[in-house]
Amino acid sequence: MSNLEKLLEGVEVEWKMLGEIGTFYGGLTGKNKSDFSDGNAKFITYMNVFTNMAVNVDINTLVRIGKNESQNKVEYGDVLFTGSSETPNECGMSSVMTTKTEEIFYLNSFCFGFRLTDKTLFSPDFLKFLFRDEKIRKQISKTASGVTRFNVSKARFSKITIPIPPLEIQNEIVRILDKFSTLTAELQAELQARKSQYEYYRNELLDYPMEESDQPSLRSSRSATSIKESDNPMQPQSAQNPPADNSVLPPRGKVEWKTLGELGELIRGNGLQKKDFTESGIGCIHYGQIYTYYGTYTYKTKTFVTEELAEKLQKVDQGDVVITNTSENIEDVGKAVAYLGKEQIVTGGHATIFKPSNKIIGKYLVYLTQTETFAFQKRKLAKGTKVIDVSASDMSKIIIPIPPLSEQARIVSILDKFDTLTNSITDGLPKEIALRQKQYEYYRDMLLTFNRKA
């Protein structure tokens, strides 16, 4: 028998309704912007509760209100809940005030608090895990009612039952679950550090300086890009917090500067709506999937269309790059994915297919589209306000550095390793984080399963 099983062996606890062991209080109402500056107390908002759900209230993120109120002060050990949301499952999300402080805190409207009558019943740190337990969450979501927006009924909420294990068991459960939480946080921090490192190497490897002899002819023949010497993104960039090992960064060699139109054929897609997707058939890449689903490259598609529709759509072959032309924001325009699968697939409108010549590797171009060099130029070419578009013909004017193919392959090889580490859900840190999260949830729900006293 494991230590975890021994911890809960034969443990029977009393279950009580929330209304039997505490009281509810509402948040403040009638506040305006002037109440949130230069005050002498802090204000816990809906988003503070929602984004820190089931963890400690982050008191460092709170804003101040203008004056002390006579009621609704949040105390150590209080559980704070969101009162409404767009889905029943998001109603009653919780944070717990686990910080002991002399500061005064108030709760916003759209939230409500729960305060124990006997605060010795629970460790506040135990409560932050308890209200994320699947069984408790199901009870909470059942109290919500509504159509387009759901609200929690406090009368029904007060009938939610929770277990009251001995404090020594609560503290041991907290110790175990805190270890899982710490490990996940450390992995998240590691992922962020690796992403910064990835961005550094990507920028350094792809940020070739433009030679003075190249600039006049390039600017005169490609004036549509409107690159000014004072804000030229192709000048070397200084990296913040560069990694100690710069061995992957080679001495700079002279490169050619070419437009995309000189390096391959750009074909604008046509048709293809989400309603056209089928369970099987010919693989297709919808433009929206490029900035919501795909990474740098893919060997297979998420969706399919019928053979009849595929005949009418533009074809994507192995090694081609599919680039978004349209989005509601400029950041998503120009995002790209290299298709490396053997079977021919299709794409639709709002996407451009780049069919590379023998001078450029498709994945090299995809990595370039993630740099400021590329972003600077696409911003100059973008048209529209609510919907932003960069046409295939305009995209063909974007200038990029072209080192020898051997150097392109070397750069791709280096960046692929970082891309896998930081983005892969099958091999990288995201996979490890997902596994640890599942492990944490499994042990949390197991440790919070108590037999009821007869």
In short:
By secondary structure, the chain is an alpha+beta fold. The chain has 16 helices and 26 strands.
Please outline the major beta sheet.
5 strands, mixed
> Radius of gyration, rounded?
28 Å
Oligomer: single chain
The CATH architecture of the domain at 13-164 comes to Alpha-Beta Complex
Percent in helix: 25-40%
Question: For the record, what is the CATH homologous superfamily label of the domain at 13-164?
Answer: DNA methylase specificity domains
Identify low-pLDDT runs. Answer: 53-70, 215-246
Query: Under CATH, the topology of the domain at 13-164 is which?
Result: Adenine-n6-DNA-methyltransferase TaqI, Chain A, domain 2
In total, the number of strands is 26
Beta-strand percentage? 15-25%
The CATH class assignment of the domain at 13-164 is Alpha Beta
- By helix and strand content, what is the structural category? alpha+beta
Q: Judging from the principal axes of the Cα atoms, what is the shape?
A: elongated
Q: How many distinct helices? A: 16
- Spatial strand order of the main sheet: 14-23-19-21-16
Average per-residue pLDDT, rounded, comes to: 80
Give the end-to-end Cα distance, rounded to a whole number of Å.
Answer: 25 Å
